[in-house]
Amino acid sequence: MNIEEIRKQFPILQQEVNGHPLVYLDSAATSQKPRSVIEAVKRYYEYDNSNVHRGVHTLGSRATEAYEGARERVARFINSPIAEQIIFTRGTTTALNLVAASYAPSVLKEGDEIVLTPMEHHSNLIPWQQAAKRSGAVLKYIPLQPDGTISLADVEKTVTNRTKIVSVMYVSNVLGVINPIKEITEIAHRNGAVMVVDGAQSTPHMRIDVQALNCDFYALSGHKMCGPTGIGALYGRKSLLEAMEPIEFGGEMIDFVDLYESTWKDIPWRFEAGTPIIAGAVGLAAAIDFLEEIGLDNIDRHEKEMAAYAYSKLSEIDGLMIYGPREGRVGLITFNLDDVHPHDVATVLDSEGIAVRAGHHCCQPLMRWLDVTATARASFYLYNTEQDVDRLAASLLRTKEFFGHAIG
């Protein structure tokens, strides 16, 4: 990977913020977009903009071809056997809500179990809370080890023959841990449960093969993988999707409508009511082309090198606490600086052109497990360099010195 050449493809990185060259370390929240994605969306609106599926004119045919071609592109990217198992959504949140609101009611009854972990993003927690309230099912949590990892022995103890759904994030957006999804899936299936995977933080950074994982549902977001905002996808096992009822109704998703009854289209279109996110799908397909040209294995290796370098560099700062294991993590470091609120840390870093995230990262239960109210997080992607980490470390030292004098 030639990182400098890659960086040139991201227009937003070629700027100064507060008088300093931008160091963008917030890709876990949203990634930046390469010129090829921006141009793909622009080209669609300039030349092909039309509604899909129903129009017989040239623009309608072009738009439909681009939209359904993007579905096939996503299917190949995650190795779905057929494109019809890919449902376009607004993102991971919508995809997980679809499973919780459509699939869950058909299988859950009072006393059944839904198994999660305490590290889950709110998007993979609150929908299941609501599903449990509606059905009378019980929420259970796989306990975390002291370093934030999951023990398969604990998975075996938590998942029982009363468990109907296991839903786990592949990669933690706070701890950086990579969860053993394939092994958890095997345990879930052995107990008759389905496996739902939150792939928001994994899909941009590693090669995904839903057939090898053998999961039943897999959710992803385009904006975290160099694609536009407002587009994502849900992969679902065909037999499960075909048994699910839509939760949104209107145009595009219907087969036949009478005054008192209606029937639905086949999957995936029954779950895509109204005018779909056409330009977003076009941009997502372009993002996949971009990532695959660079190579997911290359991206994975680069990020792990960045994480190791950052962990080592930040560990040298006295009073800085890093959360999560040192080994086996993706490219993010979540930390706190003694006696300095993470929002203050982020504000000082921003004054020097360094963008990090501060807060609870939509993981309030995990914050309580860590015994903190908030943390700061630096997250890396394919366009970050060791020099970015060096600037972060130097700025954190100045932040510590500044607040040390202020407190003293």
Characteristics:
408 residues, alpha/beta, Aspartate Aminotransferase, domain 1, Aspartate Aminotransferase, domain 2, 2 domains, 7-stranded mixed beta sheet, 4-stranded antiparallel beta sheet, 14 helices, 41% helix, globular
What does it look like?
With 408 residues, the chain is an alpha/beta fold. The protein is built from 14 helices and 17 strands. It has a 7-stranded mixed sheet with strand order 4-10-9-8-7-5-6, sandwiched between helices. The N and C termini lie far apart (46 Å). Residues 23-392 form the Aminotransferase class V domain. This is Cysteine desulfurase. One of its GO terms (molecular function) is pyridoxal phosphate binding. InterPro entries: Aminotrans_V_dom, Aminotrans_V_PyrdxlP_BS, Cys_dSase_SufS, Cysteine_dSase, PyrdxlP-dep_Trfase, PyrdxlP-dep_Trfase_major, PyrdxlP-dep_Trfase_small.
Strand count, sense and barrel status of the largest sheet are: 7 strands, mixed
CATH architecture of the largest domain: 3-Layer(aba) Sandwich
Strand order of the largest sheet: 4-10-9-8-7-5-6
Low-confidence stretches: none
The separation of the N and C termini measures 46 Å
SS elements, strand count: 17
Number of helices: 14
The overall pLDDT, averaged over residues, is 96
The CATH homologous superfamily of the largest domain is called: Type I PLP-dependent aspartate aminotransferase-like (Major domain)
- Integer count of domains: 2
In the CATH hierarchy, the third-tier topology of the largest domain is known as Aspartate Aminotransferase, domain 2
CATH class of the largest domain, named Alpha Beta
Beta-strand content bin: 15-25%
Structural class: alpha/beta
Helix amount: 40-55%
Rg on CA atoms, Å: 22 Å
Coarse shape: globular
